[in-house]
Amino acid sequence: MIETSPLKLTELYKNNLDTDTLINLYKRMLLPRLIEEKMLILLRQGRISKWFSGIGQEAIAIGVTMAMQKSEYILPMHRNLGVFTTRDIPLWKLFAQWQGKEDGFTKGRDRSFHFGTQDYNIVGMISHLGPQLGVADGIALAQKLKNTGLATAVFTGEGGTSEGDFHEALNVASVWSLPVLFCIENNGYGLSTPTSEQYNCENLADRAIGYGMESHIIDGNNIVEVYTKISSILNDIRENPKPVLVEFKTFRRRGHEEASGTKYVPDELMQYWEQRDPLTRFEQYLIDENIITSDQIEDWRNEIKNDINAGLETAFAKALPQSTPQQELADVFAPHEYVQVEPSGENTNIRLVDAIKDGLEESMNRYDNLVIMGQDIAEYGGVFKITDGFVEKFGRERVRNTPICESAIVEAAMGLSIAGMKAVVEMQFADFVSSGFNPIVNYLAKSYYRWNQKADIVVRMPCGAGVGAGPFHSQTNEAWFYTIPGLKIVYPAFPADAKGLLTASIENPNPVLFFEHKALYRSVYGDVPHGYYNLPLGKAATINHGNDLSIITYGAGVHWAKQLIDEMHFDIDLIDLRTLAPLDTESIKASVRKTGKVIILTEDNLTGSVAADIAGFIGEECFEYLDAPIRRVGSLDTPIPFEKGLENNYLPTSRLKICVKELLDY
Ligand SMILES: Cc1ncc(C[n+]2csc(CCOP(=O)(O)OP(=O)(O)O)c2C)c(N)n1
Known about the structure:
By secondary structure, this protein is of the alpha/beta class. The chain has 25 helices and 23 strands. Helix 7 (164-175) crosses helix 16 and helix 14 packs parallel to helix 19 (495-507). The termini are far apart. The mean pLDDT is 97.
């Protein structure tokens, strides 16, 4: 039965809040409810596309947002309309966003709540649900490092808690004592999946114990409880930075999205929760207590409905995006004006590994908002010793050992960038980036295009074969990323390039995957300028000038080709691409036009490699200049074997020599 007894409601809503606050909480809940009711009508009329309803869950978004300071970041989910309205985003702009209008938050590039806005300190979700939990860690880390005393709140459904991101994010937040409020909205179902099939513990809040974290269970349908308890938890978090997990018990009263219905929900359950509607129940309480009157409610409803209609009218009148392919392409990366910093003129002959260390150190000196994160990188200096001595120079706050959780750390790097910092993430081995793949390709790569949020992050990737390390410590996996718009890929072959390209990558506000070949780390020496200098991304280098054949390659391939040219005295043009994205297409064209024959050499296995794409480009752009078929030379289409002899068979060096001879004789 509906709890209408004044006594019971008095008990339920017992509080010390003043009348204004109570009325404000009510009106704040009323707004998203009325917006939703309108949206359901528009949906039926086919005037908006999808709708994820938060009806019955409003108390959580509103209570949490009201308890937050406006300067604190909130990372809401698809049912948290109340976060957006409580931050006072103009209604027309929200509606324009949902309609894909030019003046929405994403210029029509992403739908519904998939956007963020720095103006309102809101960072919306990506569809994958979990990644924002780690992003919240990064934002909170930035607040902690900057001593702002601000907390960060992030939402997830109970379904999202089954994702690895949830576990990684909670663990990192706990290990680093980050001021994050993790909010689980446990609304009974994840799409059609009931909680009994989602997790096997009584309360999700209990999971906090495993992470050494405080937790609370809160009635998510009681606005007073949400607001007062969260206010007090946040005060505590701000003073003593630490993460807190809150499980809000609530219920999803409508379908996962409107079209899918609620057939699988038992009627009694629906009725039970309808009786606990956070808005109508609180309204009854306020009337019973003579805090508001029915007339006032009527007036507010009319006022809000008028605002909604006005907002809709404005949004409907707004233009759809009128873009061109050029404009779309120009918005994939954050703008950056590269300013050349010339080298000092004084050089020392050092190894590639030393040059990378140098570049990193110069950048740490140059940017005091730069943080490096990675496994074993602090006192231990990283497995390749690149950050050896950094803790002593820059401190543990900026040189951070991480737990083994590639996803959460990439996400945390994104959070740092959102909060105005720079991050370098060291993958212990490039192979392990697969465990952080999702946030790189879906969050970092797409965020500038989606809502103009830069991802000022370099992911360092110790990669490559030739060290007898087997299938999981030898891959060169640049092709996994080459196809993704929004990522830059740098792959130096020489020490001086490595240093100058690393500093340039760190300067650049976009996500850069920086490949460092392990076999070259300690075998390749070169003269490297002292001090800070940079090199532009997207410029290839000609390592050997020749006329009979072009070899276009990068990384270890440059050294294999150079060795062959030196041994055989071939007249070959050798192009070291140095960066793959952006690709120096002009240098490729110039070389192929000069020689008329070309090999694209890659250490990667051939199928689907970067070489395949470059071959396609040459076929299209240089066809009239070719005197022989374009040849790709790469590794076998097998995993990389461990044993030295097998690894040699796998790698393309022997096939390169044959191919060079065939082409020269063609
Ligand atoms: C990684 C991933 N897997 C699956 C989905 C599809 N999906 C979208 S929402 C959803 C259910 C989410 O449930 P929950 O986290 O409890 O949030 P709720 O929708 O109940 O608010 C699913 C399965 C997705 N978006 N991302």
